[in-house]
Design goal:
169 residues; 45% helix; alpha+beta
Length: 169
């Protein structure tokens, strides 16, 4: 009986400790994830960090089918990106153009290039120095979502602004 009680208590303690997520941070709180807090409060909480740019400013804009025209939501996000880039002059940006899986490889490379160029041109009109921006098109080669449904296609029709250090000022 004593062994049985001990075994039950041990299993209960083991089950409770397995439910704790303290090993991985505190749920969805910003900055709670990452090894030793490296990705944590200093990065996301720091408005000068790339993590803040990605999460708070927004690093991507979406496009309609076969379109490279910026919609109002995209322009709003890009205006915020431009403000961030203007106040954080040590970063350069590469704008990646993407397309969904529909269409030929060649067509989607060209479409991704038009999307990346539209974003670059908008950022330049907002005051970002052209020398800090470059573009690349991945076409349909790097999908964010892999499925043949409109919801997935919509996420893959995008331009993503990727930051890198190096502008110097």
């Amino acid at each position: 009986m004593n062994r049985k009680t001990t075994a039950i208590l041990f299993l209960a303690a083991l089950a409770v400790s397995a439910c704790s997520n303290s090993r991985f941070g505190q749920g969805n709180e910003p900055g709670a994830y990452g090894a030793n807090g490296a990705y944590g409060s200093g990065a996301y909480g720091d408005p000068r960090s790339p993590e803040y740019f990605q999460q708070a400013v927004g690093d991507r804009v979406l496009f309609s089918v076969d379109e490279s025209t910026l919609n109002p939501a995209a322009r709003a996000t890009l205006a915020e990106q431009a403000r961030w880039l203007m106040t954080n002059g040590s970063y350069n940006a590469t704008i990646e153009g993407h397309a969904d899986e529909q269409g030929t490889r060649e067509y989607n490379i060209a479409l991704g290039a038009r999307r990346a160029n539209a974003v670059q041109e908008y950022l330049v009109t907002q005051g970002v120095a052209p020398s800090r921006l470059k573009t690349i098109s991945y076409g349909k080669e790097r999908p964010l979502e892999i499925c043949s449904e409109e919801a997935c296609y919509a996420k893959n029709r995008r331009a993503v602004t990727v930051l890198s250090l190096g502008a110097g000022s």
